[in-house]
Each structure stands twice: as C-alpha cells, then as structure tokens.
Amino acid sequence: MKKIYISFITLLLSSINNCRQYIPTARKGFLLTSLLLLITLTAHPQREADRWYFGRNCGLDFSTGEPEVLYDGQTYNEFSGCGTICDSLSNLLFYVSNYATYTSQHTVMELGSELEHVGSGSQSNLIIPWPESDSLYFVFRILSESNTDDGLYYNIVDMSKNNGFGAVIEKDIPLPFAWDAVDKLTATRHANKRDIWIITRKIINDNYAVFLITPEGINETPVLYPAPDRLRQYADQGYMKISYNKKYLFASYAYSNITEICKFNNKTGEIEFLYEHNMGEPTFGLEFSPDSKFAYIAYDHGNPNEIKIRQHDMQYVEDQSLFITTSVIIGQEIGNELQLATDGKIYCINSKDTLGSPSRYFIGVIHNPWELGGNCQYQQQALNMYPGATSSATPSILMDYLYRFEFEGICEREPFQFTSNFNPIPDSISWLFDDPLSGSNNVSNELNPLHTFRYGGIYEVEVDVWYPSGRFEHTSREVEVEYSPQPDLGPDTTICDGQQVILDAECGPHMYSWSTGQLGTSQITVSDSGWYWVIVTNEVGCSTIDSIYVGYRESAVADITNLVISPTTCGGSTGVIRGLDIIGTPPLILQWVDDVGNPIGSTFDIYNLSVGNYTLLVSDGNNCTTEIGPYTIYDAGDILIQDVNYTQEHCGQQDGSITVTAISGLGDMLYYSIDNGTTYFSNLGIFTSLSSGSYVVRVRDSTDCQSVFIDNPVIIQNIGGPDIIDVQVGNASVGMNNGSIDITASGASDTLYYSNDNGINFQINDGGFYNLTAGFYTCVVADEFGCDTTFIIEVPEEVTIRLQAVAGDDEVCPGNSAFVPLVVSNFNDVGNFKTTLLYNKDLLTCQGFANTHPLLEDSLEVLLFPAEGKVELTWSSLGVTLSDSTPMTDLVFQSIDPRLSFVEWDGSPGASFFENSTGVTIPVDYFIGTVKIYNNVSFDLYATNEACQGDTLQLMPMVWISNGVVTYLWTEPGGDTSSEALLTINNIQLSQAGLYTILVTDTLGCYKDSTFEILLYPSTPEFAVQDTIFTDDPFDLDAGTGFIHYLWNTGDTTQMIWVEEKGWYSAEVESPEGCIGIDSSYVLFSTTPELIKIYFPNAFTPNGDGLNDEFKPVTPIEEIEHFSLSIFNRWGAMIYQTNDITQGWDGTYNGELCQPGSYVYKIAYNTFVPSTTASEVKQGTVMLVR
C-alpha cells in the first residue's frame, strides 16, 4: 500500500490513463512530490487600500510604505464614510464621497453624481470588488444614525468604461431586507477566498443581516442572526468591525455607552451575540491589531479633552468580566475614530470638535499595535493634514486588503505560498511557521516563502520585519491547515482464483473515486488480480490516493501424466478414474462430485462410476479450492449428444424448453432425461413447458447405454416483462387535446406492443401517443412472449397563462393612510375569486377598500379581521377579463408605528383561489406588497420660554429623528412667519409675547408641529432723572424699590448709597423675574471754579431710551474751544472721532453695533474762564453696556 496526498484532483484525473504505469512502482509512504511541484504558486502583494481620500480634502498615500499627505482629493466636509480603491499595484482607480463618485483624474465619474440615496453613515461608501471580475465593483451606501429613510443601497461601477476611467452603470439599488439598516457596515472575504460577506445591523427588527456576494452577484435575501434590542434606535453612532482572524465582530454605540461583542464564523457567516461591553463611557471608533491580539476602542465624551483610546486583550474576549479588566488607556485627545492602514499602523482621527480646532488638522498614530499597553507607542500629532481637515468617519475598507501577509494553500503535506505585504521591501525578514516537526524548514528568511505543513491544524505563523528606515514590525496570523483524508486499503493481498475480496477505504463522509470507475462508495468488491487505487477527497478539496495490489495465490494443478479413465458397461457402474496426481500447497483435501454436486469420493482414484461428469475439488494449504475436471465416464455404447438448445421461461408462464440432439448406431431407440436420469422420455429430446431451474441432461438407448451432456447443468432463467426506461408526458391545455405520452421500453423480444387504453388497442414498436386530453391513462407494454408491464400515467391539465396577483407598495408617515393596490395580470374569464391577505397588525390597521374597478365593484365584498391582521375579499359574477397590470381595488390601511410591514397573500388551500367562468381553478402567482411607514419627525423645544423686555431671544428645535433634510416654519402671534432654523428676535418687546407655533417637515412630508409660549417681563425702570446731577450737599442716591438684588459700581449692594464726592455712579438691579437693568448718573457739587473742568461718564447705555445713550463730556459747552474726541477698541483701532463737543459716540462703528465692553477714549481741548485759559488732554476708559 502507498499514499499520495494531493490537492488538485483535476490534475490527477487528467492523467488517469497513466496511473497504472506509475502506481505499481510506488513504495509505501511515498508522497507525490513531483505532482505537487507542478502546481504553479505565484506571489502577488495587494495594494488596493494604499490611498485614502476622506474628510475635508484629506488624502493619504501609503504606496511607498510611509504615509504621504495628498491635497488633490475632491472630498469636502465629509461627515460620513468615504471609499477609495486602487488596483493591486496601488494605482488609483476611483473614490467615492458622500456626494459623488470620482475618477482617478479627480473628475466626477459618468453617472457618478446626483445620487438619490446619500449614504451618511459612519461606514458608508464601502467599495467591494465583484468576485472573479476584473472591472466591476459594488459601492454600498448606508444612512446615518439619525435617518431611517432608506437603509442600505448599492451602486455598480464598471471600470472598463470610458477608456478605463469607469462609469456608474447602475445606481440606487435597494436591498429591501435591510430597510432598517443604519450606520454600521462591514465586509470580509468568505473562507473560500472568493465570495464576500456584507454585514450590517438592523435597528428596528434587531438583527445582524449577512449578505453573500458571489460571481453571480449579491443574494439580496440575507441570513439574519439575533441582535440585542437597541432601545435608542436612532442617534446612536458607532462602527462595526471584524477582527483580522475573522473570529469576532464588534459593534459600538456612542450614546448607549456599549459595544456588542459577537463571535463570527467566516465559513457560514453566522454571528453569535455574546454580551454587551460597557465601560460607562460613550464608545465610538473600533480597530483590531493586525494579529488580532488586541482590540482598540475609542471612548468619546464629546470634546477632544475627553477622548480616550483603550486597548483590550483579546485572549479574554469571551469572558466579560476579565475583558473589562484588561482595559489600558494608551492615548487621548486625538482618535475617536480608528483605522488600520497598509503599513500595519492604526491611524487615529478626530471629528467632533469644530473646524479651526487643532485636533481637526492632525492625525494620531498607534505605531506598534501588536505591543501591550504604552509600548504600542501612540503618537498624538503624527500627521499634519492642514489645510485639509478630518471628519466624522475614517475611510471604509474591505478588511482583507489590510493583511500584513497572505497565504495560499489548504491541505496538509501541500506547499503553502506566503506573500508579504510589507512595504518597502525589508532589509531582513524572519518567518516562524509554528511547525517544529518540519525541522529546519520551520524558519525562513525569504520575502515570500513556501512552507509545507506535515499535519492539519491551526498554526500561528509569526513574522519579524526590519525596514531600511530602522523600523521594526512584528505580526502574526493563524493559518488553518486542513486535514487530508486518510484512506487505508491495507497491505497488498492475495486471493484464490475465482474468489472475491472487499476493498474498504472508509475514512469519513468524503468523495471516493476508484480506478475501476466506481464513484461515491467507500467499498468495492473485486475478483481479478492487479493494482487498485482510490482517490478520497474531502469537502474542502484535500485529496489522498491509496492503492493496493491484489494477486492470485498459487492454485493446485493436476498432473495427468498417469491418468487413466475406464468406461463402464452399458447400464452398469464399472467406470474408473485413476492415476491423477495433484501438485499444490499441502495439506491437500480431495472431494469428487458429480454433475449435480453430489459427493462421490475423497481419494485420488475412484471406482464404480456410472456414466457421468466427475469433478475433483482440491482444497490446499492456501485455503483455496480448485476445480479439476470435469472428467467424463462413458459406457460401451455409441450415443453421442451433439447439441443441447434451450429457451428461457418468460414471466412465470412455464414456457421454457430444452431440445437435445443425440445420435446412436447401435441402439434402435433413444430415451431422454433432464433430471439426471431419474426419468427418461421417448420424446425425441424435446422438453417444453419448463419453469426456470437447473436441469441435468442424459440420453440412453434400448440397451441401457447412456451419454451425459458435458456442459451440465443447463440453467433456465425466468425472464420478466418489458422494462420501462422512460416516460415523457406533455401537458394538455384546458379544454384541448394537445397532451402526449411517449414511452421508451426494452424487452426480451424484438417486437414490443404499446397501448394507452389498458390493452384494448396496441401499436407496434411505437410508444408515442398524441392528441390526448388531460386525464389518467392505463398504459400497457407487451412483448411477443405474452409478458406485459402495466402502469398508469396522468396527463395534467395546464393553464398555459398563470394569473398574477400583485400586492403593491406604499410609503407613508405614521398616522396617515396607505393605499395598497391589488394588481392583476392574465385576469382572463374570471368568474369567482376569494383572496386572503395578511399584514402586521402592530403596524397597520386595515380600514377598508377604495377605487374598485368598475367591472368588479358590483359584488366585491371585504371582511376585516383587525385582531388577526387579515383581510378577506370575495367576488362572484359572470366571466370578466381585465387588461394586464389592472388594479382590482386598493386596500386602505391606517399606519401606526414606523417600520416595514409586508402585505402578503395567503396562498394556503381554501384561503385564496381564482376560478374561471366554468368553475376551473386558475393557478396563481402571488407577489408580496409592502407598506413602509417612515419615522415621524421628533424634536424638543421648551413649552414655555421666558425673556426680559429688550433681550435678544433665540429659539431652535433640537431635531432627533427625521427622514432626510427638514424645513422649518415659525408662526408668531401676530401672524408673521419665518423659515429659518434659528428664530431670532432682537430687542424683544412686551407686544411680542404670546403663543408661537413651529412646524418641522422632512423631505418625505412627515412633520411635527408644536405650540409654545413666550413670556416677557418688563425691563427695570431707570432711577436717574438725568445723566448729570448738580448738587450743593451730599445726598442719598436711590436705585429704586422692588428689586431683589442691587450692585453699585462702588461695591455697595443696598438700595441707596450716600454720595458726597463728585463722580459717576451706576447701579445694576435685578427684578424678581430675573430682568437686569443698569442706570447711572454723574454727580457734580457746586464750587467756586478756579478752572472749568470737563467730566466724562465711565459707562453709557445706548439702548434708545433717550437716557445716557451717548458718550460725551459733561461740561459747559460755551467755555470749551478746540475740542477733539477719539474712541479706540481693545486692539488700538480708532473707531470714532469728532471735533464737535455736542456730538457724542452712540456705540456703533460703520453702522454696526459694537460689542459690550471697555473702550479707550482720548480728548484734547482748550478751556477758558474769566482771566484763565488752559489746554488739556484727557484719556481714560468707558464701559459700553447693552
């Protein structure tokens, strides 16, 4: 026996004619190395993810191994995922933003704009190659967490168009079963390395939806796996990613503070939810180290100072409590979104702070993601993207493009080709294959090595890489090596000549292919000598050959040198067989038998034999039994049996026959026997009416001399009736005789007779019956011997045109009525129907029907069963024919909750049927309809809003849920309206108090309105009668009564203050309603002036009330000459200047209101009083109060 391990069965089968030439020379344990070396293994690194375009004109190029910042991209203000795809040599093919698809020349691709369904999800615009196509790509687009309009859509790009620059050939194709998919989308190659899994999260039906893409396209019906209920269905951003060993799937939810931890099966696509990981912090970005040893999760509290990147140890991922304890903070401030790149590093991007913030222009990097804790070397500001800016999503990438190395191979004892994706080419590299049984071959320093694993199993292949720059990288991957089948035919064996042996290769539920041509069985029975082999192939294609040589054992041989056969006398028993010798392996056991197997003797020589045939059975030491003979004993007569002819019995009719032809020259009469001489007949040797059985022929004459037929016994078999090989039935149309039956049969006679009317009429050698109506036919096939086979065939009745019943679709906002048309085609001569339709009673309530077709409305009845979610329609009349695609009626539904409800026909027996005018049931194809209930607009706004007279009031609703872009309509108490999102009322007055309404409407017409009240409180009264108070004596300055707080510029907090010095006095007061008022006055005491002094207020309130509205000097004007006033802002810019002492500054610059605050003034003037003249310059600050 020898085994050969193979992986390419077609290669072996193509050389099947040569197998017998080389297999016999093989030795045990021989591996078909020469065959395996014929397999061409090539190494092609993949660089499809070397370029990124994302964010606000951000771009990165990894083709040299070091990221280069790009400035040529067309993405702008992208708050969703962008996709970029290159060829395997890193040449840019195209990229996709939220608004358009761009060619490698950065121009909009043909049909790449004006997309109806803009994918605003974090992982939208995912580009996936069409399996086994070199030009077609899918672009998947998914909506954001705040939108439930459209779910998951895809476009198709053909790069063979437009001289290789590509074109969008199909777009906005929906995946209906993912109607409630939101935000999360990821993809990975199937375990077969050809097909691709597309995975998303349904947030209303709460399932993980797994789609499969094959060379035939995408299967639009996903496999659904249960997911936990998300109480917050929208506004729960995050990511979904698969670990690079394809064993786990994570999905993050920022507002719920959790990450769903799941197991993933890359062979079946199965997702098994394990638990919710909750650190009490909003989770957002996700990524795994290339070796899948660590998970990196970004926790985002809403501003850069609170972003934390935590590392978690994946060896504990299935233990919830242990997994939490492995959390280590490795970075902060930059990195609420994480993405592995083709250089093996993880890039950290910010999105939540505003443009202009430094963190929006920098990208962080985790340089060594395979290292534990801080050794992973997080760098906060590794790349400066300015003037580009990052956005809310990293690029969407097929994860298989990011492997640090790849491998091709499946089976044990088959070479695996490893292909490195390390860039640039390393200075040195070291591979460790985790296969110590391979000896020195367990290590390799080649860039793209070959390795053969001796046994199946899971191997962790590790690589250490040293780059020309001095950088070191370590990575690893698990390599699954499939076990090959282990057939064991045992050692070569021998059999006796004529003996059979069972060859058993059973080693599991595999495919077995034998050298004899037998397939699908693990055992065969053989009786010939020679080489036999079997190829056993398992489900993944691993194959093994085992072979065995079956030889004959040495048989006993007769030595007839001294053989003497003596005849007997006529009618006597004096015959002798003697002198026979046997050469064979001792011990020898002898047994003589006669024609019918009766034992005669057990010695070499036997005597007293009558006429007959005698055979010696020799059993030897090889356990073989050899037949020697037969030897015939004749008598002294001259009877010669010339011939024996016989016919078979047919179908138990006892019509078999034997005809014996014999001659004799001595006897005058011959007698014939077919029961070994028990009974003789004088019938000229003709025996008829025989049943099947074994017959021994003898002939004797009148002198009792005999002869025996040397080829006894004669075997007559019972031959059955005709065999029916095939029956082809052609259906008959309703009311027509165009059916057919075509019978193919074989039988014992050359002529067969066919009937389809139970044998009343036959046709000869013709099994075709045509022009038949529908019904049952008793068919008979008879032969010339009177045997027949009878069977019943049905010719079905076929309605060549099937009626089509289609439940239509409608899309509505909650609370609105949906109209679902029931549309029919091939509605021909229909006289009666009953239909039952089912719907989701939790989402819809059927209210009745409308818009019934005029030919049906006379007798259409509808029964409603709202508790069951069922509607029954019945109709009966004369035969009616409607044009194709004609609505019979509309079912009217009241929508309840946002979701998708199917409207299905109940096609079970009795629930729905259509009949023609003669009562014949018409076959129907039913098509499901849907009612998509959009989510209603949801927003928050305070029911009561308070303000003080003169305030600026701004109101804006916080919209949580909508279906696309929303518009606003504000209505004020006086009837004025505004369509701005932010309602701003400057200097609000008491007359503007009252009830306001806000109507928010989305692009689908769903809306919400709300009424709210604005309460206004009067401004505080001013206490100063005049801006300047002239007095002779100190006095109490009173700010007024009825206020709850007072604050003077002197620091006093009382209602009144004692004033005994000149100066500017101001007070801020607060009313019980919270309104703040400020008033002030300048106090001058009467004295005998030596010089005319000029005084300036330290604050003024330009509010239009006529009091203290301007900043200007307080002094007798007639005593001032040559006056100049200049005002400067805090940066030193002059914003006001006048030479007119009567003109003051009103708090504006170029017609615009200046901001409240401190301003610098400078005044130059001359004063004169009797006998006195003075020039003076004054400078100070004044407070502008609004």
Structure notes:
The chain is mainly beta and 1186 residues long. The protein folds into 10 domains: 2-40 and 485-552, Immunoglobulin-like, CATH 2.60.40.10; 51-401, Neuraminidase, CATH 2.120.10.30; 415-481, Immunoglobulins (Immunoglobulin-like, Sandwich); 557-633, Immunoglobulin-like; 640-719, Sandwich (Immunoglobulin-like), CATH 2.60.40; 723-798, Immunoglobulin-like (Sandwich), CATH 2.60.40; 803-919, Immunoglobulin-like, CATH 2.60.40.680; 938-1015, Sandwich (Immunoglobulin-like), CATH 2.60.40; and more. It is built from 4 helices and 104 strands. Strands 71, 73, 75, 76, 78, 79, 80 and 82 form an 8-stranded mixed β-sheet that branches. A hairpin with a 5-residue loop joins strand 46 and strand 47 (599-601). The chain is elongated. It starts with a strand and ends with a strand. Residues 7-43 have low confidence and may be disordered.
Short description:
With 1186 residues, the chain is mainly beta.
List the helices and strands and how they pair.
Elements (H helix, E strand, L loop, with lengths): L1 E5 L2 H6 L1 H7 L10 H4 L14 E4 L3 E4 L6 E3 L12 E4 L5 E5 L4 E3 L22 E4 L6 E7 L9 E7 L8 E8 L6 E9 L6 E7 L4 E8 L2 E2 L4 E4 L13 E3 L5 E6 L4 E7 L6 E8 L4 E6 L5 E6 L8 E6 L6 H6 L2 E5 L4 E4 L5 E4 L12 E5 L11 E7 L20 E4 L6 E6 L7 E5 L10 E2 L5 E3 L4 E10 L5 E10 L11 E3 L5 E4 L6 E4 L8 E4 L3 E8 L5 E10 L4 E3 L4 E3 L8 E4 L2 E3 L5 E5 L5 E3 L4 E4 L2 E8 L5 E9 L6 E8 L1 E2 L5 E8 L6 E4 L12 E5 L2 E3 L2 E4 L4 E3 L5 E3 L1 E2 L3 E8 L1 E2 L5 E8 L5 E4 L7 E2 L3 E5 L2 E9 L4 E8 L1 E2 L4 E5 L1 E4 L4 E9 L4 E9 L5 E7 L10 E5 L4 E11 ...
Parallel strand pairs: 36-41, 52-60, 62-69, 70-81, 71-82, 84-91, 92-97, 98-104
Antiparallel strand pairs: 1-41, 2-3, 3-4, 5-6, 6-7, 8-9, 9-10, 10-11, 12-13, 13-14, 14-15, 14-16, 17-18, 18-19, 19-20, 21-22, 22-23, 23-24, 25-26, 26-27, 27-28, 29-30, 30-33, 31-32, 31-34, 34-35, 37-39, 38-40, 40-41, 42-45, 43-44, 44-48, 46-47, 46-49, 49-50, 51-53, 53-55, 54-57, 56-59, 57-58, ...
